[in-house]
Amino acid sequence: MKKILIIVATLFIANNVVAQKPNIVFVLVDDLGYGDLGYTGATDIPTPNIDALANQGTKFTSAYAVHPFCGPSRMGLITGRYPHEFGGQFNLADQASVTEGIPVNERMMSNMLQDAGYRTGLVGKWHLGDESQYHPNNRGFDDFYGFLYGGHKFFPAEYKAAYNGPNSWVYNHPLEHNGITVTDDDEYLTDELSHQGVRFINESVAANKPFFLFMSYNAPHTPLEAKTEDKNVAIIKDIANADRREYAAMVYAVDRGVKELVDALKAKNVYNNTLIIFMSDNGGRSDKGANNGVLSGNKGNTLEGGFRVPMFFHWPNNVPAGVNYDYPVTALDFYPTFAKLANATIQPNKDLDGLDIWSNVVAGTNARGNNEIIMSIRHDNASNRVGIRRGDWKAYRFNNNQNWKLFNITNDISETTDLSSSNPTILQELKVAGANLTKEFVEPLWFHATNATTAWSTNGMPNFEATFGEALNLDDENVFVNSKLLMYPNPVKDTLSFTFQNAKSSFIDVTIYNLQGKVIQQQKNINQDKNGQFKLKLFSGIPNGVYMTNVKNGNENFKYKVVISNK
Ligand code: CA
User: Residue 59 contacts by C-beta under 8 Å, 6 or more apart in sequence?
Assistant: First the structure.
């Protein structure tokens, strides 16, 4: 009986969707652990307002942030692309007057929604560039109230007293509203932001436009700073660990803010036409009071605790209520999904890595076929941390120094049992899919710190070859033989020469890739010359550097690293 009712409800919903452009209130919290809401299992943090919305909406149990830390996670969310594809794989340096930002030709969801007639607002944290061309007001937000950097102190009296000019720690910089320094902020920051969210809702309703509110709370990101009264509420005051108590009170303040937003929507009679989304930008830090519940790992790594996050959708009569959606989804999916809901136009040349998941969420069906992956890849100093989810499976590599592992993540959410040796084919498929994604990646446009810049070049990063091995350029007949082929010179200036011990064919095909797997030069049917050698003249203009060369002779493939040094 229950099943039938659900089906009827689903049909009702499916027929009624997208009749009107919904308002979108996207509540993004910062570094919240998977287990840190009442509805996700927290027994020491009261979040009644968030829980009520979650329970009246659809709760996603396998929602993934794009990256296990802030900047790239947000870049992925707002552009709909893996940030590695436009050079955003690191945080922007957390200092004033950082000169970089997401390339201006990279359209954001705010641009798209603005063009579709939405009034767009960002409240809180940006962290995606502070120069004029990268400022939120120039990236599709009509209204911006908040701060441009990766975090902020919470008490105005403290951050105002600590601020002593543009070279101050950016966490102490004044808040701004559309480029104008704010001076009348006198509330605890989370409360200040909540009230600004309410202001934006009220103004948007008055303007009689659909609106997109990106409510970007910096809580419960460090510094751990909570109001005394929040630390003294029931349950929280009994928490023994001081960091956990501070953290819990910060989450409690967000819950109060969510209630204020909901109350404003109801007061303006737009609650029923507003899609509310709640999620965290990455996993929690257990060393800073967070609890990732059943998940292993933390912010920064690619175990589930690094990038699987709490998330729900709420929209009365449009989003199924009181159900879980267990299929994997990613923050990359918001861009195309919002485009659908807003009846917005996606520019024809816009690259997107996610999917419009709307009809699947409404129907409770899997938005991804069995072949589509969700990947998180984080560069370490000299290595890569990787998590690749596909269906029930998760391939995981802590870094290049440890072996790949494979988990059945549906049965083993805590990633305790490595099944790679009994399922080598599945692991290989996931590695190949992940390796193929990296072929779209480009060099970073910035690093968060000078030593990271140095480490990148010193360690020959991104070093995907070490991470993915033969999966990086796998083809069906690829074999690795080192003693049969002589390739010289190396480094090479302008011409590669090959000599075989026993050539299978008098022709070879040569492909040269960069370390991201992008084909730089390819030539087929190179003839053996009278000395028994095969020669390939390199295109001029190939930058100096390390490349991979695949030489195909008959049905054998030979792979060599080559250094091109032509200048
Ligand atoms: Ca974060």
Answer: 39, 311, 312, 323, 324, 325
For the stretch 504-520, pLDDT in tens is 888 999 999 887 788 99
Which residue range(s) make up the domain with 386? 374-473
Report how far apart, in Å, the C-alpha atoms of 429 and of each of 66, 371, 419 are: 21, 9, 14
Ligand 1: centre distance to CA 70 (Å): 4
Are 237 and 312 in a shared domain?
yes
Round the average pLDDT of the chain to a whole number and report it.
Answer: 91
Q: How far is the CA of 306 from the centre of ligand 1 (A)?
A: 10
The answer to whether residues 346 and 394 belong to one domain is no
Q: What is the whole-number distance in angstroms between the Cα of residue 152 and the centre of ligand 1?
A: 12
Compute the distance from residue 485 Cα to the ligand 1 centre, in Å: 49
pLDDT for 49: 98
Separation of 147 CA from ligand 1 center, angstroms? 15
CATH classification at residue 402 = 3.30.1120.10
Write out the two tokens for 216. 């970007």
Distance 136 CA to ligand 1 centre (A): 18
Total structural domains in the chain? 3
Q: Of 415, 439, 473, at which residue does a domain stop?
A: 473
Question: What is the model's pLDDT at position 487?
Answer: 65
Q: What is the pLDDT of residue 484?
A: 62
CATH of the domain at 215: 3.40.720.10
Task: Report how far residue 466's alpha carbon sits from residue 486's, in angstroms, rounded to the nearest whole number.
Answer: 23
Q: What is the CATH number of the domain that holds 541?
A: 2.60.40.1930
Q: How far is the CA of 514 from the centre of ligand 1 (A)?
A: 32
Give the residues across from 125 on adjacent strands: 147
Q: Residue 272 and residue 142: Cα distance in Å, rounded?
A: 24
> What is the distance in A from the centroid of ligand 1 to the CA of 8?
39
Please give the single-letter amino acid code of residue 223: P
For residue 490, what pLDDT band results from cuts at 50, 70 and 90? low
Mean pLDDT for the stretch of residues 434-441: 88
Q: Does one domain contain both 24 and 79?
A: yes
31 CA → ligand 1 middle, Å: 4
506 and 519 in contact (C-beta within 8 Å)?
no
Distance of CA 332 from the midpoint of ligand 1 (Å): 16
62 and 153 share a domain?
Answer: yes
Instruction: Specify whether 342 is located in the same domain as 265.
Output: yes
| DSSP 3-state of 304 | helix
Q: Give the tens place of pLDDT for each residue, 85-128.
A: 999 999 999 888 789 999 999 999 999 999 999 999 999 999 99
Considering the domain boundaries, does residue 369 fall inside one?
no
